[in-house]
């Protein structure tokens, strides 16, 4: 049964153009069991760790060819011209590789390394203003068992600080804004917490000429859901406490139920518990991340909408003069990749070591590569400026 939901319009003090952004109702998964299954990740035969639920084998090559930057079909035959050495060298397919590697090798042709194609990305951004969007978990910090200890190291912080000194930079995360700020600790950034439902501009005034000072003070399109979220948080804590390892995280406008430390035999019953609660609340919906179930208000506001909102608020609505770069690792980041695909603008970069169905044009394997990429951008900006 498709759940009938009320269409919720965020109350706005929005830029005029945002008023045209239609909210659409997200259909919830059909049927009890199918919805539960939809949220239970399974390890695949290639030995992936179960985070990557969208692993697809033998992806059709034409599926995600919405590249803003030129990606000639034959570039993979050439050795890399990137200044960055990578683990995999060039992208040529090895016909004798084992099936898992072959899947990766095919996938990487569609989503080539942002490091190996660094010059291409920079060339595409030439004459345009880069705006950086960075997810947090799995992108700036490694995935760890305890979400309260997902610290970002100082080297990464320096890299983000430097990038933010060159380009407007936003952290876009499922975490609460306060919590991610405690991890990142940089005042000069934009923060979009709770999957973009809690946006705040930099505490330190941005120095970019084009940006109106404090263009975004605070934007919280889901604020009226706050009492509901608090209520459901308590319920979830109460009802999941019998499942060892389960952890409920309050992300202010959304909630996370972590099952990374839960015995896989108990994943299904945990998902049933969560699902049963969500069924009682038609104004909430369930999505899935890396070993986490995410409970959010029904409004169609996500990381993609947050990206559009920030671009417009920053005065960067003009498609031709702006080059947004979005880096993220999780399912929720796909909403932002889709926006870039749709606008045929900028570059979406997925952080993943294994093939995943994605709307991102490029890939990076892990946070360490994200850091190299950020350093590269800073260096290339110095060359441009000087
Ligand atoms: O949008 P993000 O910044 O990627 O946030 C998505 C979720 O990230 C966090 O959970 C993930 O990272 C944890 C720490 O490494 C890990 O233990 C967990 O399994 C991952 O799903 C965060 O704790 C969640 O609330 C966010 O929804």
TrEMBL record:
Record InterPro entries: HAD-like_sf, HAD-SF_hydro_IIB, HAD_sf, OTSB-like, Trehalose_PPase
One GO term (biological process): trehalose biosynthetic process
Top-level EC class: hydrolase
Top-level division of the source organism's lineage: Eukaryota
Cofactors (names): a divalent metal cation
Pathway: Glycan biosynthesis; trehalose biosynthesis
Keywords, in A-Z order: Hydrolase
A GO molecular-function descriptor: trehalose-phosphatase activity
EC numbers, comma separated: 3.1.3.12
Record field: catalytic activity: alpha,alpha-trehalose 6-phosphate + H2O = alpha,alpha-trehalose + phosphate
Keyword ATP-binding: no
Entry's family note: Belongs to the trehalose phosphatase family.
PANTHER family: TREHALOSE 6-PHOSPHATE PHOSPHATASE, TREHALOSE-PHOSPHATE PHOSPHATASE C-RELATED
Function recorded in the entry: Removes the phosphate from trehalose 6-phosphate to produce free trehalose.
Protein name as catalogued: Trehalose 6-phosphate phosphatase
Species this chain originates from: Rhynchospora pubera
């Amino acid at each position: 049964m498709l759940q009938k939901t009320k269409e919720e319009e965020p109350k706005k003090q929005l830029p005029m153009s945002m008023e045209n952004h239609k909210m659409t109702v997200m259909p919830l998964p059909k049927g009890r069991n199918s919805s539960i299954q939809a949220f239970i990740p399974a390890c695949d035969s290639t030995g992936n760790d179960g985070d990557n639920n969208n692993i697809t084998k033998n992806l059709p090559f034409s599926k995600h060819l919405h590249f803003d930057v030129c990606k000639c079909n034959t570039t993979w035959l050439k050795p890399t011209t990137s200044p960055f050495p990578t683990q995999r060298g060039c992208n040529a397919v090895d016909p004798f590789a084992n099936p898992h590697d072959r899947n990766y090798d095919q996938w990487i042709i569609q989503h080539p390394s942002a490091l190996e194609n660094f010059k291409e990305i920079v060339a595409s951004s030439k004459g345009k203003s880069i705006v950086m969007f960075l997810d947090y978990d799995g992108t700036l910090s490694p995935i760890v068992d305890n979400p309260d200890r997902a610290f970002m190291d100082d080297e990464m912080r320096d890299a983000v600080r430097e990038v933010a000194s060159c380009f407007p930079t936003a952290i876009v995360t499922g975490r609460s804004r306060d919590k991610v700020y405690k991890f990142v600790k940089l005042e000069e950034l934009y923060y979009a917490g709770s999957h973009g439902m809690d946006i705040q501009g930099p505490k330190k005034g941005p120095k970019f000429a084009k940006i109106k000072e404090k263009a975004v003070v605070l934007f919280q399109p889901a604020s009226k859901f706050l009492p509901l979220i608090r209520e459901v948080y308590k319920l979830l804590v109460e009802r999941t406490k019998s499942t060892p390892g389960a952890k409920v995280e309050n992300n202010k406008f959304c909630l996370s139920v972590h099952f990374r430390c839960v015995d896989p035999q108990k994943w299904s019953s945990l998902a049933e518990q969560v699902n049963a609660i969500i069924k009682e609340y038609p104004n909430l919906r369930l999505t899935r991340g890396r070993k986490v179930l995410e409970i959010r208000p029904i409004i169609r506001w996500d990381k993609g909408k947050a990206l559009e909102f920030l671009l417009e608020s920053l005065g960067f609505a003009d498609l031709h003069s702006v080059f947004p770069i979005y880096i993220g690792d999780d399912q929720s980041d796909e909403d932002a990749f889709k926006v870039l695909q749709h606008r045929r603008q900028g570059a979406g970069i997925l952080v993943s070591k294994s093939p995943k169905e994605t709307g991102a044009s490029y890939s990076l394997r892990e946070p360490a590569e994200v850091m190299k990429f950020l350093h590269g951008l800073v260096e290339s900006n110095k060359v441009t400026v000087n």
